[in-house]
Amino acid sequence: MHPAANFELIIGMFLVVVGLHYLARRLSLPPAAALIVGGCAVAFVPGVQGIAIDPELVLVLFLPPLLMDGAWFTAIAPFRRHMAGILSLAVGAVFFTTAVVAVVTRLLMPDLPWAACVALGAILSPPDAVSARAVLQRVRLPRRLTTLLEGESLLNDAAGLVLFRFAVAALLTGSFHLGAATGTFFLLVAGGIAVGAAIGGLWVTLLRRLGDDTLMIAATVLVCWSAYIAGELLHVSGVIAVVTAGLTCGWFQHVVFSARVRIRAFAFWQVLVFLLEAAVFLLIGLSLRGLLDRVGGLGVVVDTMAQPVLLIVAAVIVARFLWIFGVDAGVAAVRRIGWTRQHPLGPRAAVVMGWAGMRGVVTLAVALSLPESMPARDLMLVTAFTVILVTVLVQGTSLGWIIRWAKPPEDAGTRPSLDLHAAETMLFRAQLVVVEREAVAADGTVIHPQLLRRYRTRATAADAFDGTAEQRDVAIASHFDVIIAAVTAGRTELVRLHRAGRIDDETLHDLEHDLDLEELAAVAAKGESPSAALAPS
User: Fold this and answer.
1) CB–CB of 128/350 below 8 Å?
2) 95: number of Cβ within 10 Å
3) DSSP letters along 191-259, please?
4) What count of Cα atoms within 13 Å lies in the side-chain half-sphere of residue 177?
5) In this predicted structure, what is the pLDDT of residue 506?
6) CA-CA distance, 285 to 279, in Å (whole number)?
7) DSSP secondary structure code for residue 171 in this structure
8) pLDDT over 60 (residue 456)
9) Measuring CA to CA, which residue among 405, 391, 363, 414 is closest to residue 134?
10) pLDDT digits (tens, 9 = 90+) for 117-134
11) 3-class secondary-structure state, position 75
């Protein structure tokens, strides 16, 4: 295909994305489901050529920014508090599901080598970060369950990819050593953490010195790909490197970003992630035609593959429920004898967690990367695509109903000590201290009475000043300097409350956004040049 035609195809794809998103909103459907179904429909439109997906390009193009987006907004304190549960899902559930799928596949096809069965299990085992994010945006869950699902989606791809590579290597070389594989796994994880922390630290240092908001936003966007590529080049986990870099950047952005940079960067990043996320699901649908052409058509799939594929799909879903309920029962048992302070999820929350196992782009990309010599490769591709369709279209669309039916209880222990109102009150008190100090002269004369009456508009403030235009400009600048100082004090108090664990990330982001808007309005009213807003507040 001509390069210009490729570009036209990309533009057309994004136009379809906008239309499908609009249609999904009008019909109250999950956008992910609408995009996959729409992609499948578009793939069979006469004249539309099949889409050939390069698996390596898909992973490096889509996975880093979408992982970064999830890690950036991850609440660190709950993430750390529920790390045991997250690792149980991200590592334990992945390994268990891989084993179950491998056993079921071997029973269905006794001639298939064990390594190939394990490879299929590794492809299907990790729920997808993109799919989980797309679904979680539309449902309301207790904080603990949200933390567990988001944490799982950030880390489980690393476990699945490592398992897959070990299985393929074992098939191609004919040898496998459990001890060496275990050591390599932990080395990949530790290396990924080190690389991600180094990239994140470099980002913090760089942003303190760039001094230009466009450069700062560009550097921020490039962090995710830099961490992933660096991790892969150093032969460690690129996924873990991206997640670690994202957690680091998300933690420090409150002190290295100015209000102007944060507002502009988040707006740009939101659109970028929207387009990439939508393109992922549309590409999944568009790839159906090429997949069916490869295996000989839909008739061949129905006649020769339907039974084993559906049984393997059932094994994937059941294995997740078995692991979650089994681990929850184990936690309840050890808690009764006093060996742990962890609280079990309970059956209602466990049902929701078991049903929230959507697969997506990683499963498809890894399946497409199977070597041509892999036994039963066509069956594996069809199974991977079917698992994506079933989990996104069935589980994803019905998850909201499952949540309303199960009504999982909120874990009281996850609530911060301050709610939004209390945090806002403390923020206002910190601002008032600065205003009272700056708005009164040494002799007790009130310099800025407008500020002591909870701020006036620019016009009202300007009318209150007498004198020449130059004197008025100086007075107005001084007026808004106090506002900016008050915003700085409020932001400092807000970060202090968050670092002390007294407010959660949602409250931090909400109030920080209000402060950013207030600061930008003050800077604009004061008449400063754009560069004046660049210094971190």
Assistant:
1) no
2) 17
3) HHHHHHHHHHHHHHHHHHHH--HHHHHHHHHHHHHHHHHHHHHTTS-HHHHHHHHHHHHHHHHHHHS-H
4) 4
5) 78
6) 10
7) H
8) no
9) 391
10) 989 999 999 887 666 666
11) coil
